[in-house]
Write a structure and sequence with these properties.
Radius of gyration: 24 Å
Distance between the termini: 64 Å
Strand order of the largest sheet: 3-2-1-4-15
Structural class: alpha/beta
Helix content: 40-55%
Largest sheet: 5 strands, parallel
């Protein structure tokens, strides 16, 4: 940033709002911030070593060409950087915000491994695509030729939307069905707005719709439309429902009032941020304000819950996890963020029961890590006599998600599933046991990352285009 711009910027930050110079309007501030962000993006991009073996790229599920768009960004060729970024990623501005880069690209950066601090790949990716939106470089699908084939997609989450984008750009007619009133899946209702702003998701929905994707929202498959009807209406179907069935707590008092599911807590918070009428928030049932909050779990959903509870004004927030910090599945960056915001973590802590109705406390059993199991992971063991009560007014269950019983719900007994209830699907193509039916994302993998769902959706769309071409070739013979 130029010296005079930096001086102007720091003056505003120091004196605002009451001493802000009259000629320094909000628009000026945005321009100064954009200049600052651009300089930081260039600075970070120029740190890329352009190594011969780009581990950042190989550890990205989408295999994004990270070194090339970093180089272009460093050279100031921003639009070209965006074109490279979006060539392999349907939603780069979303991945830039919510991908666990510390476990993927940034965690495997050669500069990070050498002890000099990683290139902030996620932030640069976010900056590039946000700028692309501002400049009008992000455009709806405009297929060179419309095709008669129709594909139905069940689920408007990242996997389904990624597939819809690829198929629509090829000219295929696409209809996306979703049970909720807004598209986006967990990106809309599961991930908090402080991590992923909802207007960012909604503008992607608008872009897909402008490109010709048809959305049927508030449509529950099995109730509003049968699976058989959908198969009859479309040449192919993609199941991209995600996994929404919450794992339950066991122990005395587990059904008491004040013990709630993470998905309900987060959905309520997100609905409230949209301005929706949410009685459960207003009456305090799913509102952490003024409460002692205990979150049970160690994944990213648990981190979303604790940080949301802090923002809602909880008097205290504590996270219980049965293993230690090194063995938790969630992002270490998220844990650090939560700690900075005042969340207390109780490692090696297992809930054994609950007192009160509404809940007043959690019975906590202290654990230790024992011998490794078959996977090499140490199993937690109880410490005899090490039990205490943890006061709580609101307990949030963030133990992960499981698949719903789709063959039963949709009356499709021939739809093969695994012993975990996830759909059996062919690797990379998403083909299932039912002809013309594909599956992608968490409903195949189990609860996973948005970036993996995007990868699955894109791969599946390519497989469908290949299958449709093969069918046309057979018909032409």
């Amino acid at each position: 940033m130029a010296d005079n711009a930096m001086l102007k910027f720091t003056t505003v930050m120091r004196d605002m709002p009451e001493k802000r110079p009259p000629d320094l309007r909000a628009q000026d501030f945005r321009e100064i911030y954009a200049e600052y962000a651009s300089e930081k993006a260039r600075e970070q991009s120029s740190r890329c070593s352009q190594c011969g073996v780009p581990y950042c790229q190989s550890h990205c599920p989408l295999h994004n060409n990270i070194p090339d768009w970093l180089r272009l960004m460093a050279e100031g060729r921003l639009q070209e950087a965006y074109e490279i970024s979006q060539a392999t990623n349907t939603f780069p501005e979303i991945c830039g915000r919510i991908c666990p880069q510390d476990r993927l690209c940034e965690g495997n950066c050669v500069i990070e491994k050498s002890g000099h601090g990683t290139v902030t790949i996620g932030q640069v990716e976010k900056y590039i695509t946000d700028t692309a939106w501002e400049k009008g470089w992000v455009t709806p699908a405009a297929p060179a030729q419309e095709r008669p084939e129709s594909v139905g997609i069940i689920g408007a989450g990242p996997g389904g939307l990624a597939a819809a984008d690829v198929l629509r750009r090829a000219g295929v007619q696409v209809t996306v069905y979703d049970r909720y009133d807004r598209g986006g899946g967990l990106m809309t209702y599961g991930i908090p707005g402080f991590k992923l702003e909802k207007d960012v998701v909604m503008r992607r929905m608008e872009q897909l719709e402008a490109g010709g994707v048809t959305f049927r929202l508030n449509c529950n498959v099995g109730e509003d439309i049968t699976f058989a009807q959908m198969r009859a209406e479309h040449d192919a179907l993609i199941i991209a429902t995600g996994v929404y069935k919450s794992r339950e707590l066991q122990g005395p008092g587990a059904g008491a009032k004040g013990i709630v599911r993470a998905i309900d807590f987060l959905t309520t918070s997100n609905r409230q941020s949209f301005g929706d009428a949410v009685p459960e928030f207003d009456d305090g049932t799913l509102n952490a304000k003024g409460k002692r909050v205990v979150v049970i779990g160690g994944g990213d959903t648990a981190m979303d819950c604790v940080r949301t509870a802090v923002r809602q004004g909880a008097t205290s927030v504590k996270c219980l996890y049965r293993r230690d910090r090194a063995n938790m599945p969630g992002s270490q960056r998220e844990v650090a963020n939560a700690e900075e915001e005042g969340v207390e973590f109780a490692w090696l802590s297992l809930p054994k029961g609950f007192s009160g109705d509404p809940v007043t406390s959690v019975r906590v059993q202290q654990m230790r890590l024992g011998a490794p199991d078959a996977t090499g992971r140490q199993s937690p063991e109880e410490i005899d006599g090490a039990v205490h009560d943890e006061p709580a007014d609101l307990v949030i269950k963030a133990l992960g998600f499981e698949a719903e019983e789709l063959p039963v719900l949709w009356d499709q007994p021939e739809l093969a599933v695994t012993r975990w209830g996830t759909i059996k699907a062919e690797f990379t193509t998403g083909r299932t046991s039912l002809p013309g039916v594909y599956a992608v994302g968490d409903i195949v993998r189990g609860a996973s990352l948005v970036v993996w769902a995007i990868r699955d959706g894109r791969d599946c769309a390519d497989a469908i285009l290949s299958d449709l071409a093969a069918q046309q070739a057979v018909a032409a013979e």
